[in-house]
């Protein structure tokens, strides 16, 4: 069996090459800080994110309120780090959703010729819808809630992953080691999981990182439009939407949640770019 | 060649068929009765029944699908529940700001991305290249609505150079209307420039080391001519592709940007339709935008056929 097992990249060499890349390390560092702040928010936040203080409303950043306060006197720093939890949760859940359905669809389409054309057409058709527009249509149909946002964004990004998995599967399917496995009578499901899927880890990882970033941006957009989670729940999008009314007098309400989105999305893109460059030698220096 | 065109045309029609089916399904997956949801909790049973009959929701699903498809073939996108007018004319009325917003955003994105992408590839690995690729990544990470708010605060509120929001009101002249589009187009253009820049750079890198570029140089041709006439001309096709697809996707960005700037475009109409659960409008907008995307994709393929003889097999 050893003769037909799929070639894999040496994990140790991959990690050592990864850590030598400056962009990846900076990206990872920002990501770890953002994630740590979000996860440890109950321990770090100086105030409760929903604590009202009428006397302290619209206060600029200071020693007591690092990012200032909002129109209800709530601490913008505490709300910003609490909001990170929801953004990260949405991003991770959307990636998990897209990975489960996208990988399955892509594998089946790429491996079974008869199913390829109908699945490929569905993927093409789904890709024709711009993400936010399809998301708001789905939210309109299902009603705004956290689960709806995750499902809607998951549905949007599933075909993007499926397309990449399908394209790679079409190539891998024809490789000699898959043919050899077939000739040896290895069951189809085992070929798909052991020989094909294992070689798809890199493109899935790269695309998953980008989907994480885009899902966070899209969630912020939906929340900004009032079509995401309940407006009382602090998210970066709802915070910017609330800050919009006070942009002339309290621009910190808009500024800090925006910077939080940018840092998170940027860090994910840096990591994703680094992964792609390392895993695809063709692109290593070009993109 | 005609076989290729026919194949692509059939492929496009198949994709459009699936698009129509998906749009039909999206509106029908709403939990409960869409008519009751649209009319709200105060509606009487008679009102709900009347709306169900008007929308054809009292028919079996397959009949509804047939009617929906038949109407589409006649160019009928249905009627808006709240505007009491055909969806197509409601969308057409709002098309101007969205069209100009998309057009200007693409022009701004191209003006930033193409020269920077070319120079970045030409000076590969230099400080300029590193700075521009980092800035492109940063631009792709900025939510367009947040950038829009910052631009409003700085250029409209503080400096008073541009209007804060709106489209100049009814009867406003073209100049006034266009001045309302500068900031929204700038915010969308900057954000969209990232992808075009990356493609321009990658595409230029592909061709800069090709033999014909070396030959042009060895003939003693000036660097500007070598880069623009020989390299860029050949690198243009992928760049045009990404510009075309970005234009189609910009409509998505326009939904949020139009809301920030209070522009009365298609995006704004869709957002208010979602808040009012005006399903026919949402359905119509989705169909038109997806059809545009599919059509642009098809046209790009045809453009390839015209400019690249290798495709004509």
TrEMBL record, chain A:
InterPro entries: BP-dependent_transpt_permease, MetI-like, MetI-like_sf, OppC_N. It is a multi-pass membrane protein. Keywords: Cell membrane, Membrane, Transmembrane, Transmembrane helix, Transport. It is found in: Cell membrane. Its main location: membrane. Residues 84-272 form the ABC transmembrane type-1 domain. The chain crosses the membrane at residues 24-47, 88-112, 132-157, 200-217, 255-275. Belongs to the binding-protein-dependent transport system permease family. This is ABC transporter permease subunit. It comes from Microvirga arsenatis.
